[in-house]
Amino acid sequence: MSNPFFIFTRTELIYLLVVFLLGIILGATLLNLYLSQQIDRLIYEKNSLENQLEENQKQIENLEKNLEEQKHNFVKSINIKLESDLNKHSQQAVKEKIQNLLSRVPGQEISKIEPLLLRDIINERLINVDDNTFQLHLLYLVLQEDLELYIEVSSR
Fold first, then answer.
1. What is the 3-state secondary structure (H, E, C) of the chain?
2. Residue 50 domain-assigned?
């Protein structure tokens, strides 16, 4: 009478091994799904903060330059409101392109800014983002210390 070392048969060991491996695969898949959402959110926040930092640095430079030259009311910042069906990453990229188009506006004296020129820069403009072309339609703009642009974005 020999005592077997294992209390499980070979088929039971294979079954346990398969269940164990499936558990590992399922756990890794669920962990990947969970972490991918967090990574996506963090990438979006990082890009948003980098754009905001760059925008703020440009504004500070323009404001310091203008403060030395004059004591009039001038544009401090640009707020862009988009009406579109785009995902948050595409909207972020569109806003960044618009900020680049208007990068010289912050720091300018309000009375010297031509609203029609701002309209011509933005309205009906085609921009490329991630191999997609979008058309901007300026709904309205509010010219004050915090310049506000309300823009409709449509796919082209």
1. CCCCCCCCCHHHHHHHHHHHHHHHHHHHHHHHHHHHHHHHHHHHHHHHHHHHHHHHHHHHHHHHHHHHHCCCCECCEEEEEEECCCCHHHHHHHHHHHHHHCCCCCCCEHHHCCHHHHHHHHCCCEEEECCEEEEEEEEEEECCCEEEEEEEEEEC
2. yes
